[in-house]
């Protein structure tokens, strides 16, 4: 409906501009649903926006626009309110035609081609492969998956990518942690580092390492520990100690270190793949950081930055002059010891995204990555890529509660609830729905007890119950000796005149615009709010009206309406990645 009103307004505004009455017209016309239906179904402030450039009173402009608006079978009445708002009252035909479109288009209802198949790469989750995914990663997974679904729904060509951080110090810490646990299986007595990965999963990987290697990579504890600096809490520094252990491990294992590293990495990545797939989250690409390094991608990106004149050397290190692009300080690319920074690899990663032909790249990061935005956009701009093509969305942290008790979330200490454990307890549907109920910038408290409850207070139960209730109506239809004639229902949609029916029709008509807004604003929570509104409207209708009545025309019209509700709920559920149970 909004699109229809916008088309009418654009026709009039172009006419006013061509006649010289308006010097310019806005590229975008804001049209919003009204809060009070006494003021119509939709309203626009376009006359107020045109007042200043046209040097006219907004109410005079509104009157001129209304006078020139062509008649439409979908607009029953138009009123001017206040200083110049234009209110549109939609006709009953406009609303009932929505049912026709829904039942005709089915799963395609609400989809559009406005993205014109522009290529979008969405990188999300991208957790370091140093342990199982925890409940915080689950929010990233659900959020990214729904963003991808939304963009596809409005016509973009989407690639979902997981950037595997398989290079660097954290992976070495994981490999060393696994090897030390392996040595423990071999009865070598070595204190475990304070900064090692301590979760039970490390012991499981160590057992797999032992099964593969037996005692082939066993080294006596005395050789491992000889002359190492003290660890915490023995008066030493845990960072210095773990780095010394990494160096010692590589020296002792030599070429065999690669096998330990690979087994640890592959085990973790395989677990992540399985976990996410079971969660309904799939990636088109698992992009390896180490593969990027080995292919020379980092060197190529750094050379391009040098060619732009935005790099310099200081104190033996190579720096990127990111302050030239409004970053707060310059960034090190290569340290004085010749070691490239994580940022250098990240520059190459982002260069690769656009080199592979994507029009837009979307990064979904944790809120602790806020400082990465300006430096990454600066690097993209220095590589002669429009920084507007890089969109960074930050997702806030998740706190997990069981009743009033907050559960721990320390990854290094191994004290955390995994995504798999969460899914097992509350189910995929509740997890995915809860994860996207709030804006991504808002901190989230995940209430386990609420997510498991079978009550109207649980939002996912509430919306799925609406779907199941509609299914039950059609089961009752046959039991009572009636059948549904869809054609007859379509022919008598004018019988839908109650307040509850008009409310449902209004809400159904909002779905396509909601999908566009949610996609372009990267806001999956709009879908959860919408399906809750639609479910609430249906439950109110269910509790106030009989659907299976003797009057065949009215019965089929009402069944057509709730069939449309069922279809739109299903479309919304599919967008969110949750199931549509036919009974509950």
Question: Can you describe what's shown?
Answer:
The protein is 51% helix and 13% strand. It has helices at residues 2-18, 46-54, 58-68, 92-105, 135-153, 169-185, 200-213, 221-225, 238-253, 257-278, 289-294, 297-307, 342-355, 372-382, 419-426, 428-435, 448-452, 459-479, 486-491, 499-509, 511-520, 525-544, 552-576; strands at residues 31-33, 42-44, 75-81, 85-90, 119-123, 157-164, 285-288, 311-314, 317-320, 331-334, 360-366, 390-395, 398-402, 405-406, 409-410, 415-416, 444-447. Helix 15 crosses helix 16 (428-435). The protein starts with a helix and ends in an 8-residue tail after the last helix. The mean pLDDT is 94.
Classify the beta-strand content into a percent band: 5-15%
Biggest sheet: strand arrangement: 7-6-5-11-12
Query: Which descriptor suits the 3D outline?
Result: globular
Mean pLDDT: 94
Helix content: 40-55%
Largest sheet: 5 strands, parallel
User: In terms of per-residue confidence, which ranges show pLDDT below 50 for 5 or more consecutive residues?
Assistant: none
Distance between the termini: 34 Å
The total strand number stands at 17
Q: What class, by secondary structure content?
A: alpha/beta
Question: Helical stretch count?
Answer: 23
Radius of gyration: 30 Å
């Amino acid at each position: 409906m909004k699109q229809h009103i916008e088309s009418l307004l654009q026709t009039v505004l172009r006419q006013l501009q061509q006649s010289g009455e308006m010097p310019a017209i806005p590229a975008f016309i804001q049209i919003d649903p009204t809060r009070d239906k006494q003021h119509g179904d939709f309203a626009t402030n376009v006359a107020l926006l045109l007042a200043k450039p046209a040097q006219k009173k907004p109410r005079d402009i509104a009157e001129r626009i209304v006078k020139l608006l062509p008649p439409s079978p979908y607009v029953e009445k138009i009123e001017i309110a206040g200083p110049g708002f234009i209110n549109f009252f939609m006709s009953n035909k406009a609303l009932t035609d929505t049912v026709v479109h829904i039942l005709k288009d089915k799963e395609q209802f609400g989809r559009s081609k406005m993205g014109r198949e522009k290529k979008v790469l969405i990188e999300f989750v991208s957790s370091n492969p140093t342990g199982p995914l925890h409940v915080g990663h689950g929010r990233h997974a659900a959020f990214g998956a729904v963003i991808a679904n939304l963009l596809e729904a409005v016509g973009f060509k989407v690639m979902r990518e997981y950037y595997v951080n398989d290079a660097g110090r954290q992976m070495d810490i994981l490999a060393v942690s696994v090897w030390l646990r392996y040595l423990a299986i071999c009865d070598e007595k070595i204190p475990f580092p304070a900064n090692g990965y301590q979760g039970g999963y490390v012991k499981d990987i160590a057992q797999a390492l032992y099964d593969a290697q037996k005692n082939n990579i066993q080294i006596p504890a005395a050789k491992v520990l000889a002359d190492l600096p003290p660890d915490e809490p023995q008066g030493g520094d845990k960072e210095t100690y773990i780095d010394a252990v990494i160096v010692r491990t590589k020296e002792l294992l030599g070429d065999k270190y690669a096998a330990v590293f690979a087994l640890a990495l592959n085990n973790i990545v395989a677990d992540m793949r399985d976990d996410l797939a079971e969660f309904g989250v799939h990636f088109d690409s698992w992009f390896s950081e180490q593969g990027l390094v080995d292919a020379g991608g980092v060197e190529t990106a750094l050379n391009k930055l040098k060619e732009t004149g935005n790099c310099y050397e200081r104190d033996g290190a190579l720096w990127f002059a990111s302050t030239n692009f409004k970053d707060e300080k310059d960034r090190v690319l290569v340290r004085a010891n010749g070691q490239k920074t994580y940022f250098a690899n990240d520059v190459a990663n982002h260069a690769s995204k656009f080199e592979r032909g994507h029009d837009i790249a979307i990064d979904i990061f944790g809120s602790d990555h806020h400082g990465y935005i300006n430096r990454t956009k600066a690097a993209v701009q220095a590589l002669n890529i429009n920084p507007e093509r890089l969109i960074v969305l930050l997702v806030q942290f998740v706190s997990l509660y069981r009743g009033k008790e907050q559960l721990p979330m320390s990854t290094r200490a191994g004290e955390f609830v995994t995504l798999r454990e969460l899914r097992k307890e509350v189910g995929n549907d509740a997890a995915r729905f809860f994860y996207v109920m709030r804006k991504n910038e808002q901190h989230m408290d995940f209430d386990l007890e609420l997510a498991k409850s079978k009550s109207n207070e649980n939002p996912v139960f509430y919306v799925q119950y609406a779907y199941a209730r509609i299914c039950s109506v059609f089961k009752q239809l046959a039991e009572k000796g009636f059948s549904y004639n869809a054609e007859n229902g379509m022919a008598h949609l004018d019988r839908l005149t109650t307040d509850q029916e008009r409310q449902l029709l209004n809400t159904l008509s909002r779905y396509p615009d909601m999908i566009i807004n949610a996609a372009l604003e990267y806001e999956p929570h709009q879908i959860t709010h919408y399906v809750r509104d639609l479910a609430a409207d249906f439950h109110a209708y269910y509790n106030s009206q009989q659907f299976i009545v003797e009057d065949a025309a009215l019965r089929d019209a009402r069944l057509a309406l709730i069939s449309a509700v069922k279809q739109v709920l299903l479309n919304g559920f599919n967008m969110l990645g949750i199931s549509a149970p036919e009974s509950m």
